[in-house]
Write a structure and sequence with these properties.
Layout lengths: L10 E4 L9 H9 L4 H12 L16 H4 L5 H10 L17 E8 L2 E2 L2 E2 L4 H10 L5 E6 L13 H20 L1
Parallel strand pairs: 1-2, 2-5
Antiparallel strand pairs: 3-4
Length: 175
């Protein structure tokens, strides 16, 4: 891509790599299936230490000892495996790739009135603005994967909240 420097080859960024904390909808799904609070507390502490879900594994590929010690049930083990799917990369990981980014997928697990629960969209949009990004951003709703059977899926409401929030942030950033 860099060597060719072609307008036809580029990157699509998924903001799921910028989770500041684990998606609460995933935690609640796992709780409903029997996951205890101790594994969740340990994963929270990994994020507090600027780690992320990938930190549940040690260099040997097994769960880190403090997590392994509290995995008591199959639901705890399920949660621990799910937890590694969320990353907490610094935005600077994009620096060298900015000229090649064509599109940004804004991962959406759970919108609140203050933004997405697990990542800072405003910070991401500010970064893109500061680096002269002039492409598209889109909503990629994935909260539905954590909906309990028989419960309503709120994808339309979540996407509407997301779009409204993105517009608000862009108005503030762009003036």
């Amino acid at each position: 891509m860099k060597r060719l420097n072609s307008p036809y080859i580029g990157l699509v960024i998924d903001t799921g790599i910028f989770c500041k904390r684990e998606p609460r909808v995933m935690e609640n799904y796992c709780r409903a299936l029997g996951t205890g609070e101790e594994p969740i507390r340990i994963v929270h502490s990994l994020y507090d230490q600027r780690g992320d879900g990938r930190s549940v594994y040690g260099p040997d590929g097994d769960f880190i000892p403090e997590l392994k010690a509290v995995l008591k049930t199959p639901s705890d083990h399920m949660y621990a495996h799910f937890a590694d799917g969320y990353e907490n990369e610094p935005l600077s990981v994009l620096d060298e790739y900015m000229p090649y980014i064509f599109h940004v997928h804004f991962k959406l697990f759970e919108m609140t009135e203050d933004g997405e629960y697990s990542m800072d969209y405003r910070e991401i949009l500010q970064y893109l603005h500061d680096h002269d990004y002039d492409g598209y951003v889109s909503t990629e709703y994935e909260g539905n994967r954590w909906t309990m059977p028989g419960s309503p899926t709120v994808e339309k409401e979540q996407v509407l909240l997301h779009q409204r929030y993105i517009r608000k942030c862009l108005q503030e950033i762009q003036g």
